[in-house]
């Protein structure tokens, strides 16, 4: 009997520790530190014709996968004053750990990457959870992660759509996600669509973060 009681007590303690250690949406706003995973294009579509060199050379799926997608991720890291994640998300430290997203982006199916048809995630919650569930190669094994899961860059409508997603690194559980739209701006294909990401960051900084805090941070 005593053995059974001890076993039961151990199980309760184990569950309590796990529950205590799990992150909640409130932790996104309580923590001073987050981990930036980057832009994940693994389920994204590029809609319309994406021109290089002022329309002289249309960009191919191969160009997008091996040139522009890595370039957009690198640009955010190389220009922290322009893509100011610390200021946008009110954090003291933002650690960069893009290994998982780099692995994810290398697995993009080029045959599906380019399209001229409208596109949306059929089940955004499932898509986002599935993508993050495949993470685990990065240097960090705990804390709050932040990834922009790109739904599309739409050249026809001049619009980028991304799911700004916070998750518990230890459990790979999505804490919350919000779909954001951004208008592209800039010179050249790389800078033009990077401008859409910057506009999303500015929107979050100026008004949306406060709204999220009221919704998820209480």
Write structural notes for this entry.
This protein is of the alpha/beta class and 218 residues long. The chain has one domain (24-216). 45% of the residues lie in helices and 24% in strands. It contains 8 helices and 9 strands. The strands form 2 sheets. Strands 1, 2, 5, 6, 7, 8 and 9 form a 7-stranded mixed β-sheet that branches. α3 (61-78) packs across α8 (189-216). The longest helix has 28 residues, at 189-216. The chain is globular, with a radius of gyration of 20 Å. The chain starts with a helix and ends with a helix.
Mean pLDDT: 91
Count the strands? Answer: 9
**How many individual domains?**
1
Main structural class:
alpha/beta
From the alpha carbons, calculate the radius of gyration and give it in angstroms: 20 Å
Strand content of the residues, in percent? 15-25%
Which series of helices and strands comes N to C? HHEEEEHHEHHEHEEEH
Which features does this protein show?
single chain, 218 residues, alpha/beta, disordered N terminus, 45% helix, two-stranded antiparallel sheet
Reconstruct the topology from this structure.
Layout: H1 2-21, H2 25-30, E1 33-40, E2 45-47, E3 51-52, E4 57-58, H3 61-78, H4 85-88, E5 93-96, H5 99-106, H6 110-113, E6 114-115, H7 124-133, E7 144-154, E8 159-168, E9 173-182, H8 189-216
Parallel strand pairs: 1-5, 1-7, 2-6, 2-7
Antiparallel strand pairs: 3-4, 7-8, 8-9
């Amino acid at each position: 009997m005593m053995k059974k009681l001890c076993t039961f007590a151990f199980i309760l303690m184990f569950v309590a520790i796990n529950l205590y250690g799990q992150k909640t949406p409130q932790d996104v706003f309580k923590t001073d530190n987050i981990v930036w995973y980057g832009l994940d294009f693994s389920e994204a579509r590029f809609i319309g014709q994406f021109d290089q060199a002022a329309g002289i050379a249309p960009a191919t799926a191969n160009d997008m996968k091996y040139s522009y997608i890595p370039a957009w991720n690198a640009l955010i890291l190389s220009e922290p004053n322009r893509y100011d994640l610390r200021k946008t998300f009110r954090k003291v430290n933002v650690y960069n750990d893009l290994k998982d997203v780099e692995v994810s982006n290398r697995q993009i199916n080029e045959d599906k990457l380019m399209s001229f048809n409208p596109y949306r995630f059929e089940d955004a919650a499932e898509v986002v959870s599935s993508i993050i569930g495949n993470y685990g190669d990065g240097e960090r094994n705990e804390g709050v992660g932040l990834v922009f899961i790109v739904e599309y860059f739409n050249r026809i409508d001049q619009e980028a759509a991304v799911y700004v997603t916070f998750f518990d690194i230890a459990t790979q559980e999505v804490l919350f996600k919000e779909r954001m739209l951004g208008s592209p701006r800039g010179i050249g294909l790389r800078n033009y669509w990077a401008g859409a990401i910057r506009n999303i960051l500015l929107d979050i900084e100026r008004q949306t973060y406060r709204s999220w805090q009221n919704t998820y941070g209480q």
